[in-house]
Specification:
The complex is a heterodimer.
Chain A (H helix, E strand, L loop, with lengths): L1 H8 L3 H18 L1 H4 L30 H37 L1 H16 L2 H12 L3 H28 L2 H9 L3 H37 L11 H8 L11 H25 L5
Helix pairs in contact in A: 2-4, 2-11, 4-5, 4-7, 4-9, 5-7, 6-7, 7-9, 9-10, 9-11, 10-11
Chain B lengths: L2 E14 L2 E14 L3 E5 L6 H7 L8 E10 L2 E2 L5 H7 L4 E4 L3 H4 L6 H11 L5 H14 L5 H4 L9 H13 L5 E5 L7 H17 L3 E6 L2 H7 L2 E6 L2 E7 H6 L4 H8 L16 E11 L5 E11 L3 E5 L6 H9 L6 E6 L2 E2 L9 H6 E4 L3 H4 L6 H13 L3 H14 L16 H14 L4 E5 L7 H18 L2 E6 L2 H7 L2 E6 L2 E7 H5 L5 H8 L8 H14 L1
Helix pairs in contact in B: 4-5, 4-7, 7-8, 15-16, 15-17, 16-17, 17-18
Classes of the chains: A mainly alpha, B alpha/beta.
Chain lengths: ~280, ~550
């Protein structure tokens, strides 16, 4: 813990800014009811109002307070994106490590199955599956997590294959260690740096993916607020010169940039590069 | 004679986290035309850093902090980039330790040879090609007209190293810096490269800085030797004088390394047989045999040394014994019970009694585990030790391998190479084995450190009656510790028996070649040997 803190202190300015940006979004998400002046679905005024003292960022197509919805939207979007990324890593890393450690036909089978999944364009595949199973939040989470885990599988398999040939893994095998122990204790700690960096990147992608799905009407369902959906609901306004839909879009950009700034730093540290 | 290179009071610093730490602490170095200077020292002594500094170059993360480097009347310290560019490669060239890692695998040898002279506008490509053939010929590379058109992976290690020397000679430089050019080679190949280097530097009257940790190697080439330690000069003198009468204690230690040997070995031929290998044949592809008809016995408390060049099948035999490569024919008996060819069906007890120590302690220890986990895991795994008892045993083992108790919380990266190898030994000992396979355990270490490891292994053997199968290409090590010697060539055992018999003439032809190729601390050894071999070939 202490080393982590001292590590954070030595972080470059860009990473600190990134952390600040993520922290702001997290605070907004956690303390949403305290921060937001209006309720998530509360109709607070006229349609498409400009910024004013009561409506900090104006109102949306139904007259709901934009700022309040942004704050609540952070909750839905971040929580779901985090859960999806986490699940996709659980699936992807486990299978990737299994494939790399056992090798042979197990590796072939898993890899070819993943290839088949990856052969479909992700968005189209997700649209197809979601329109069959329905757009509930659990379905959304599982479908995206599975699709995303294919990428994680590829990475973790490649990383694990590099580690698997090291002599300390051979030593563990010769000791008679079981597969799980080798994966958990010999491979995982050494695979952490690239996986952590990938986690940050994947988080952004998932986030954008949900936004895209919401935009197409298959993501988080209204009236719940989520940033992608908010862009869609208000997109029409842009033709009238009202920039309300730009606010949720800006929020998406804000968090993505923030996470990426941290990831850049994490990658830098993980790859052991010096300036 | 005129001074070609004069380095004065040079300080080179390296960056650690946020501060600069001196690596070379104010050394003077001079080199005359045609002179060969040997730089000798252990790893971390700063010899490579100093060698590279002769062309005002430092590795990334290092800098030349102060001092002066005068080459042929020009100051190179703070020299402009264009000045340095005109000198590097053209007038001062560099030969790296591992040719395999230094050649670009995607280009033919001759293209890489020609790059220097063409870039420096010394000749066009076709004359560089002609020049290459001449130099390849002088370095006794086979088929000099065509070898240059091969890719680096198509020639052997020794040939590649000579091709690299050729590359350094391409611009006929005034100075060549050789950075351990033979360390990664077998003894027999080492001779070829040494002879080639000696011959060509004499022929062109090239000055050279020869960096090595092996005093016997440098003795063959150098006119003058500088002994370095921790970035400081220990001793500098004429090569013959330093070998005959070293002034400093440290130099004396380096010199005496090779004389260490076991004395008063008890005869162990009556002991119980631990490992019995019967008619073992193995192959990787199913068709080509890498091991044929291996018969070998190891007795309790005995050290059997398995000797041979790379590719002779020594490590493959270790893989067969450990179960990583199932044999196609024959059987391996461990304490009179046949071992399953594959690893999986072997019992935990069998795995426990047969341990392995690797060549590279860096890759044999998980960098993310503490010493406690590394040594503690076999205790927990095989002996079901936990908590206090395990902690106690780890400390005992640390004491046995002569490391302080507070190392228990360290990570491998916080240990030196020799200390890491000691941890590997402790990990093997933790399992309380009957047999330890030592795969080139000292070849990645400095000689003084390696000697410490060998002594430790011998002490442990006397205390614990453990047997060793000692795989090595280094005959000095064999002489020092073996009870029995097995010589392998091309996957077959060509000679085996007690150490005394094998080391006593008459030898098998190949054993003789191996034995005679080990450099001696005698400046005339190489010339004498080559002469003898030429005479023998003529007869």
């Amino acid at each position: 813990m202490i080393t982590l803190l001292s590590h954070l202190r030595t972080a470059p300015l860009s990473a600190k800014i990134g952390m600040g940006m993520v922290l702001i979004t997290l605070i907004a998400a956690i303390f949403a009811p305290l921060i937001a002046p209006f309720g998530e679905t509360e109709i607070a005024g006229d349609v498409w109002l400009f910024s004013s003292s009561t409506h900090f960022l104006g109102t949306d197509s139904l007259g709901r307070d934009m700022f309040s919805r942004l704050v609540y939207g952070a909750r839905n979007t971040i929580a779901i994106a985090f859960l999806i990324t986490f699940l996709s890593f659980v699936f992807g890393v486990t299978l990737g490590f299994v494939a790399a450690t056992i090798g042979g036909w197990v590796d072939q089978l898993l890899s070819r199955m993943i290839d088949i999944l990856m052969a479909f364009p992700t968005l189209i595949f997700a649209l197809m599956v979601l329109s069959v199973v329905g757009t509930s939040i659990p379905a959304l989470i599982i479908v995206i997590a599975l699709l995303d885990s294919t990428r994680v599988f590829r990475l973790s398999r490649a990383v694990a294959m590099d580690i698997e040939v090291m002599e300390y893994v051979e030593a563990a095998r010769l000791r008679g260690e079981k597969l799980w122990w080798i994966m958990r204790h010999e491979i995982l700690p050494n695979a952490m740096p690239p996986l952590v960096a990938e986690f940050g990147l994947r988080f952004c992608f998932v986030f954008l993916f949900i936004a895209a799905l919401s935009f197409l009407g298959l993501g988080i369902q209204p009236p719940a607020a989520d940033w992608g959906g908010m862009v869609r609901e208000n997109a029409g306004a842009i033709t009238f010169g009202i920039f309300t839909p730009l606010w949720p879009a800006a929020a998406i950009a804000f968090l993505t940039v923030g996470v990426n700034l941290i990831v850049d730093w994490a990658l830098h540290v993980a790859s052991g590069l010096k300036d | 004679m005129k001074k070609l290179l004069e380095i004065k009071n040079i300080v080179i610093e390296g960056q650690t986290s946020d501060q600069w730490v001196p690596i070379v602490k104010g050394i003077d170095l001079t080199l005359k035309k045609g002179e060969v200077l040997g730089l000798i020292g252990e790893s971390g002594a700063g010899k490579s850093t100093l060698g590279l500094a002769s062309m005002a170059y430092t590795r990334p993360g290092c800098r030349i902090a102060s001092g002066s480097i005068v080459f042929d009347g020009q100051e190179l310290f703070d020299g402009s980039a264009s000045l340095l560019r005109s000198i590097r490669g053209a007038r001062i060239a560099y030969v790296a330790q591992s040719a395999a890692a230094s050649f670009n695998p995607a280009h033919r040898l001759i293209n890489q040879f020609a790059e220097g002279p063409v870039q420096h506008n010394l000749m066009n490509f076709s004359s560089a090609e002609e020049k290459a053939v001449t130099i390849y010929d002088q370095l006794l590379l086979p088929d000099p007209e065509h070898i240059g058109y091969r890719f680096p992976h198509q020639v052997s290690g020794g040939q590649l190293q000579r091709a690299m020397v050729a590359m350094a000679m391409s611009c006929q430089p005034d100075i060549i810096v050789f950075d351990e050019p033979t360390t990664a080679l077998d003894v027999t190949t080492q001779i070829e490269v040494l002879a080639a280097i000696k011959d060509i530097t004499r022929k062109y009257n090239t000055a050279a800085i020869y960096i090595t940790h092996d005093l016997a190697v440098v003795a063959q080439l150098a006119d003058r030797i500088m002994v370095l330690r921790d970035g400081q000069l220990v001793e500098e003198n004429d090569a013959r004088e330093i070998l005959a009468a070293p002034k400093e204690e440290y130099t004396r230690e380096l010199l005496s390394v090779r004389s260490f040997s076991t004395k008063g070995n008890k005869d162990k031929s009556g002991n119980k047989v631990i490992l019995d290998i019967k008619d073992v044949t193995a192959s990787y592809t199913g068709t080509e045999e890498v091991l044929s008809d291996i018969n070998l016995q190891i007795r309790k408390g005995q050290t059997v040394a398995l000797v041979g060049e790379s590719g002779s099948g020594k490590s493959t035999l270790a893989r067969v014994i450990t179960g990583l490569l199932p044999q196609s024919k024959g059987s391996v008996l461990f304490k009179n019970k046949p071992l399953a060819p594959k690893l999986k069906p072997r019992s935990r007890e069998e795995l426990q009694r047969l341990q392995m120590i690797y060549q590279m302690p860096d890759t044999a220890l998980n960098p993310r585990h503490t010493i406690r986990t590394i040594i503690g895991r076999p205790l927990q795994f095989y002996l079901k030790m936990n908590g206090r008892q395990r902690e106690q045993r780890i400390l005992e083992l640390l004491e046995q391998i002569e490391l302080p108790a507070d190392y228990i919380d360290r990570y491998p990266a916080e240990l030196s190479g020799g200390e890491k190898q000691r941890i590997c030994i402790a990990r093997a000992l933790a399992a309380e084995p009957d047999l330890i396979i030592c795969d080139e355990v000292t070849s990645a270490l400095d000689q003084l450190v390696a000697e410490g490891i060998l002594k430790l292994l011998l002490n442990l053997q006397q205390k614990l009656q453990v047997s060793y199968l000692f795989i090595t290409h280094d005959l000095t090590t064999v002489k020092a510790i073996a009870d029995e010697i097995v010589v392998m060539l091309n996957g077959r055992i060509i000679e085996q028996g007690p150490k005394k018999e094998i080391l006593k003439p008459p030898h098998h032809e190949y054993t003789d070649l191996l034995l005679s190729s080990v450099p001696k601390m005698d400046p005339d050894w190489l010339d004498g040997l080559l002469e003898k071999r030429i005479l023998a070939a003529a007869a």
